[in-house]
Write a structure and sequence with these properties.
Layout (H helix, E strand, L loop, with lengths): L1 H44 L3 E2 L5 E11 L2 E10 L5 E3 L2 E2 L11 E4 L3 E5 L1 E3 L7 E7 L12 E5 L5 E6 L4 E2 L6 H9 L4
Parallel strand pairs: 5-9, 7-10
Antiparallel strand pairs: 1-8, 2-3, 3-9, 4-8, 6-7, 10-11, 11-12
Length: about 180
Amino acid sequence: MGQDKLLRKDIIMKSTLYRKSISILKYLGLLVATLLLFLGLNFWSNQLDDLHIQDVKIYNTFFAMENGKPTFYLYGKLKPTFASYSGGAFTQYNNSNGSIYGYNINKNNVNIDGQQTHSPFGSKEVVFRIKSDPKHGLTLINQNIYLTDQQHHKIKLYDAHTRTQTYSLEQKDTQKFIKQNKLN
């Protein structure tokens, strides 16, 4: 009879230890799965993607002089929740490395390309700054400026013929800027 009590106590103790071990392993497995899911979503959300025209609300463009050269600025905001802007001042010409980040130029046009990420926590502010560089064919004042995307959508930001900016807060600023700086 005494051995039955010891055997029963041993079985109960082993059973309790087994259940606790299984519970700990379940929670540990759930924690590891959650961590892997979080890391995967974080990796996906920080992948660069083409900036889509329909995702950008442009609220101002203007020219300014920097180091004696005209510089074009664009300010906007991304509309979708799961998007954040990844960009800044551009120095890349003709996307020679196949990147979609930068701008393409030809004699009459400057096409600005940008990138975004899918992070809901990143910056929604979109800022492009492009300095004039006549040596590389970038005169800005004498070229139409467009914001473009890979689906071949484009928005005209500056018309070189009429010297107007569709999204400028003050249209007179362009004409005034050109006259003040004696640009043609």
